[in-house]
Specification:
Elements (H helix, E strand, L loop, with lengths): L1 H20 L4 E9 L11 E5 H6 E11 L2 E10 L5 E10 L5 E2 L7 E5 L4 E7 L7 E8 L1
Antiparallel strand pairs: 1-2, 1-9, 3-4, 4-8, 5-6, 5-7, 5-9
């Protein structure tokens, strides 16, 4: 149990470090991706694309499981400010070779996050060939 807690703390520190180090890019959202077979490398796959948004919203955890051959994912995000944020998110799905599956299928979903709140985003892969995913957040 102590080892699991230590791994969670280490993972959180790596996520925060990655967010801080990647904060200099200039596009429009936060992107995080995970290969479920590489649990230990999750935090190294997070990329912050917008310095302003990275200061307002943080990705606090990624969880994955396979149910009936479909990848199920859960991503928790936190609004780090006291004001309400209007965001959109979408999941992109990738096969084992890294090709995006159903490229046009990833619709932007709106969410409203009140100050200091944590929101859980969940999705199920569209088919069993999915081996990894990416989540993109953008501010409205």
């Amino acid at each position: 149990m102590k080892l699991l807690k230590s791994c969670q703390i280490t993972g959180f520190i790596l996520i925060v470090s990655s967010l801080i180090m990647a904060g200099c890019a200039t596009t429009t959202g936060i992107t995080g991706s995970v290969d479920p077979s590489a649990e230990a490398e999750k935090s190294s796959l997070i990329e912050v694309q917008n310095k302003s948004l990275a200061k307002k919203v943080s990705i606090t955890s990624f969880k994955n499981k396979v149910v009936n051959d479909l990848l199920n994912v859960q991503v928790e995000i936190a609004n780090d400010f006291s004001s309400t944020r209007e965001l959109q998110y979408r999941f992109s799905w990738f096969d084992a070779a890294g090709f995006e599956i159903e490229q046009e299928g990833g619709r932007w979903q709106p969410i409203v996050m009140h100050g200091g709140s944590v929101t859980t985003l969940r999705a199920v892969a569209p088919n069993p060939t999915v081996k990894s995913y990416k989540i993109v957040l953008r501010e409205l």
